[in-house]
């Protein structure tokens, strides 16, 4: 549940389209239909995966050691040339769609927050954005190579493992803002968001000896969020006023 909340409800790429809606009602309608479509799409993918295994068993095709390799093996070796080409095109399109939005977001954030591009002359902005985009593309490529070399799990499992560390601070920030609405000392917030995953990793690595043999799984996300929440609580301005949105305050 918490993974679904942070990887969907708190994901900028998925939620930013709600900001373009004319009002809250339109945004709520968009959220409703997004959930409906998401459920249908997930059901179709799960059904496709199950049917592929049924097909392989019926045809006597041995399964692969890693589930990530199963569909590529079928598409490229057993389902014909057309399916193989379609598979490659689909993988390429899906990869570009997701990586492009991430690269754009990183480029924009870096140029504005670190390069102060809005203060640069207009003729230099395009060049700066281009090289920053190229730089992040190279970093992405290197990260993929390292991930492929080091990862020995299925991709979806590895993604959820990483989400426990990367999305935890986001969950803590959102929860603190939603439930307490207290101002915090902003300059210390990044340190909390960096420290929380580190502490979560330490707890996870020693959980067996510290918690009588218990090994943390995807609940790392909750631990991470709680640590972030606690850190923000320690940093909150006790003399500050609670923030009340205008829509709720009647202003």
Automatic annotation (TrEMBL):
Gene3D superfamilies: Sodium/glucose cotransporter (1.20.1730.10)
Gene Ontology, cellular component aspect: plasma membrane
Subcellular location: Cell membrane
Pfam families reported for this sequence: SSF
Residues that span the membrane, as ranges: 32-55, 76-96, 130-150, 162-180, 187-204, 216-235
Endpoints of the signal sequence: none
InterPro entries, per database record: Na/Glc_symporter_sf (IPR038377), Na/solute_symporter (IPR001734), Sodium:Solute_Symporter_SSF (IPR051163)
Highest taxon in the source lineage: Eukaryota
Topology versus the membrane: Multi-pass membrane protein
GO BP annotations, alphabetical order: sodium ion transport
Keywords, sorted A to Z: Cell membrane, Ion transport, Membrane, Sodium, Sodium transport, Transmembrane, Transmembrane helix, Transport
GO molecular-function term, one example from the UniProt record: symporter activity
Family per similarity comment: Belongs to the sodium:solute symporter (SSF) (TC 2.A.21) family.
Name assigned to this protein: Sodium:solute symporter
Taxonomic lineage of the native organism: Eukaryota, Metazoa, Ecdysozoa, Nematoda, Chromadorea
